[in-house]
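INTERNAL AUDIT FORM
Audit reference: QA-55
Scope: verify that the stored structure record matches its stored sequence.
Auditor: D.O.
Record contents follow.
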Amino acid sequence: MTTDFDAIYDDYRMLHDAIRELPDRYFVALLSSEVRERRQVLRDTIALDASFKLLSRLEAALKDKALRATRRPGRRKGDAISHELEQLVRRLAKRQRCSPRVAARDLPIEHVLILLRDHFRTRGESLHRTLSLAKAYFKSFRNWYAHGRIGEPTPKPPDVEEVMSIVLDISGAIAI
């Protein structure tokens, strides 16, 4: 089954390969050194976009899992992560005096990643390192890309393959 994550990555690979294979004649009135430079700019741009899309889709999937956890109040037969997410959303809803649905929508992704990191750290699983790296990518690259590109220095963009690996590790471990 192809997931949204796979589709984003496949689109990235297809565009990356197409730019590499594009004949020089499509770059009208450019010298060969300028063509190489233009190709690199295009590849960098699609890499930025793909990394952003993967991280944004991961954020949406994690928030959706939190929302689904609040739709089953009192049912403790779910997994431990869903139970912890439900508690996190309910605490936020109480603090903000809103419904759990609104709280799940507004839940900061950093809180979810910290909760998951701590969950896996206490169980001695190595996924907590991956979650820490994902948190760093959200804090620097994803938030810069989504909210503050003007006047801000460009952070080092994550490698698309590394982001895809992180996304697959997290989605596989918590069933999103």
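Auditor finding: record pair retrieved intact. The radius of gyration is 20 Å.
Action required: none
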